């Protein structure tokens, strides 16, 4: 049980023993109290849950040099879409777009590692779950990709990628 008399006695006598350090302890206590108040004021009342995926569709394609790539496009319930495409033994490219964009053709910035940037011109078919993309990267590489139920041959025909 809590004994107020004993606690007051201990506090008073410990302060007498360390009277020179009392102002320092009070400054620390005030600092810690103020810090706790600031942190609690900044913290949200409830943490927002991570966005939930609403769809995930495959991406396949190749660069003009013939390097094949595969990846995935994922749409989230917060309206953000994200994609990644990996080239085996090489780089991985990523990007994001607004899932709610009503346009059938959109331009998406692409990032591949720390140095390579580019853009993908994406053409979506009715329903926006199928389509194709033409990609140009800052390292001079060009590529063609398909996503959803569309095959590469349906979008671009047979043979190697022709982007020029």
Describe, in plain words, how this protein is organized in 3D.
By secondary structure, the protein is an alpha+beta fold. Helix content is 24%, strand content 39%. The chain has three helices and eight strands. It has helices at 4-17, 22-42, 152-156, and strands spanning 53-63, 68-76, 80-86, 92-98, 105-112, 116-124, 131-137, 142-147. It has an eight-stranded antiparallel beta barrel with strand order 1-2-3-4-5-6-7-8. A hairpin with a 3-residue loop joins strand 5 (105-112) and strand 6.
Summarize the structure in short.
The protein has helices at 4-17, 22-42, 152-156, and strands at residues 53-63, 68-76, 80-86, 92-98, 105-112, 116-124, 131-137, 142-147.
Q: Sheet bearing the most strands, described?
A: 8 strands, antiparallel, barrel
- Helicity range of the residues? 10-25%
Number of strands: 8
How do the SSEs run, as a string of H and E?
A: HHEEEEEEEEH
What is the CA–CA distance across the termini?
84 Å
Uncertain segments are 7-11
- The general outline is elongated
- Total number of helical segments? 3
Average pLDDT for all residues: 80
Percent of residues in β-strands: 35-45%
Enumerate the strands of the largest sheet in spatial order, edge to edge or round the barrel: 1-2-3-4-5-6-7-8
By helix and strand content, what is the structural category? alpha+beta
- Give the radius of gyration: 29 Å
């Amino acid at each position: 049980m809590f004994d107020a008399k004993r606690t007051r006695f201990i506090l008073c006598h410990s302060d007498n023993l360390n009277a020179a350090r009392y102002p320092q302890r009070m400054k620390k206590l005030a600092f810690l109290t103020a810090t706790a108040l600031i942190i609690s004021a900044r913290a949200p009342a409830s943490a927002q849950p991570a966005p939930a995926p609403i769809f995930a569709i495959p991406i396949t394609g190749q660069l003009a040099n013939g390097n094949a790539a595969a990846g995935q496009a994922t749409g989230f319930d917060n309206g953000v879409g994200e994609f990644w495409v990996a080239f085996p033994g090489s780089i991985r490219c990523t990007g994001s777009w607004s899932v709610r964009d009503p346009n059938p053709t959109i331009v998406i910035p692409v990032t591949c590692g720390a140095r390579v940037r580019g853009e993908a011109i994406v053409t979506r078919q009715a329903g926006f779950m199928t389509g194709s993309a033409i990609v140009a990267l800052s390292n001079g590489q060009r590529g063609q990709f398909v996503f959803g139920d569309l095959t590469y041959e349906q979008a671009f025909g047979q043979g190697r990628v022709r982007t020029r």
